[in-house]
Amino acid sequence: MKRLACCALLAVLLVAPLGGCHGPQRLSRGLDEWANNGYIDSPWIYGNLLAHLLLAGATAVTWTADSFINIYFFWVDDAEPFGSGKGTPYPFRAVTPAKR
Question: pLDDT per position in the chain (100 positions), as tens?
Fold first, then answer.
């Protein structure tokens, strides 16, 4: 019985992201925006060190987390009949590079 419950839970976790395929990708876009803002100030650190080591792993984690978070935004906020029928925008901040 315990094994059946574990298998059922695993099946739900694997199938759940398919219920709402896409959403605002808030975590992934937030990470991308953070990396972009850091790259403006320090391209050597963000462009070389973090891009290949930290950001690759962090992007995989945020995509995975977003696949579950997007279910909420798709079914509750965005898609009709439960939502508004309009997508949730990501609030990108305008970036103005500092003069050197």
Answer: 888 898 888 887 777 666 666 778 888 999 988 888 888 888 888 778 777 778 888 999 999 898 888 888 777 777 777 777 777 777 777 777 665 5
* Nearest-angstrom CA–CA distance, 77 and 79: 7
N-to-C CA span, the chain: 66
Count of positions (residues) in the chain: 100
H-only helix segments in the chain: 2-15, 26-41, 43-44, 51-52, 54-72
Enter the pTM of the model: 0.66
Closest C-alpha to 65, from 25, 18, 100: 25
Nearest to 73 by CA among 60, 62, 64, 82: 82
